[in-house]
Amino acid sequence: MKTSNPFIGIAGNIGVGKTTFTDIVAERNGWHPFYESVMDNPYLSDFYGDMKRWSFNLQIYFLHHRFRNHVKMSKLSKGVIQDRTIYEDVEIFAKNLHAMGNMDDRDWENYRNLFKVMISFLRKPDLIIYLKASTDTLLTRIKKRNRSYEKTIDPEYLHTLNVSYDKWIANIKDMPVLTLDTNNFNIFKDQETLQLIIKDINNKLS
């Protein structure tokens, strides 16, 4: 039996194509999309200029935004699909900033404790879809979309995030995961592949 009013989380690195994927899958399935707050994020530009100074501020902003979206999603009587999950905040981005020395121990502990309290109130996704791509592919896509605040992204930072994503996905035990290699997938041109992916998604929800 297919999951009623499913909750789908789209996970993946910067530039992998989460928003476009969310748009198209939401439309095909009649689900309500929820997006990451990027263009209106007041910290991103400062963060890419000085990660050590702005990492905690940025992560708290994202955590608040995604928690707020979770509350909204829980009130809808239809399927929802979310562009980036709240779990990536702590498992990928904040954890890496701490490991790189861009978030000190005090802020990391404070952030992690806040995260634990928040997720205790939240419904887990019925399926996480992990969009995967190589660092070179991510850099190409980031350059193509030409966002000013992303021009200073360090390729090594993207690579580190990719490693963290693979490790996190491999260790998820309490939520179903569908991994999609997007390196050679053009969602606008490869319609046959897209149809197979959507079929696979719906099968995973059954």
Task: Characterise the protein shown here.
With 206 residues, the chain is of the alpha/beta class. The protein has one domain: 3-Layer(aba) Sandwich (Rossmann fold). The protein has eight helices and five strands. The protein has helices at residues 18-29, 44-49, 51-74, 86-99, 105-119, 135-145, 155-170, 191-204, and strands at 7-12, 32-34, 80-83, 127-132, 177-181. Helix 3 (51-74) runs parallel beside helix 5 (105-119), helix 4 (86-99) packs across helix 7 and helix 6 (135-145) crosses helix 7. The longest helix is centred in the N-terminal third of the chain and has 24 residues, at 51-74. It is globular and about 45 Å long. The N and C termini lie close together (5 Å). The model has no long low-confidence stretch (mean pLDDT 91).
List the helices and strands and how they pair.
Elements: E1 7-12, H1 18-29, E2 32-34, H2 44-49, H3 51-74, E3 80-83, H4 86-99, H5 105-119, E4 127-132, H6 135-145, H7 155-170, E5 177-181, H8 191-204
Parallel strand pairs: 1-3, 1-4, 2-3, 4-5
Helix pairs in contact: 3-4, 3-5, 4-5, 4-7, 6-7
Q: What's the alpha carbon Rg, rounded to whole Å? A: 17 Å
Q: Any low-confidence stretches, pLDDT <50, length ≥5?
A: none
**How far is the N terminus from the C terminus?**
5 Å
Write down the overall mean pLDDT: 91
User: What's the number of helices?
Assistant: 8
Spatial order of the strands forming the largest sheet: 2-3-1-4-5
In CATH terms, what is the fold-level topology?
Rossmann fold
Structural class: alpha/beta
Helix content: 40-55%
**CATH-wise, what's the superfamily?**
P-loop containing nucleotide triphosphate hydrolases
Biggest sheet details: 5 strands, parallel
H/E topology pattern: EHEHHEHHEHHEH
- Domain count: the total is 1
Number of strands: 5
Give the overall form: globular
Beta percentage is 5-15%
CATH class: Alpha Beta
CATH-scheme architecture: 3-Layer(aba) Sandwich
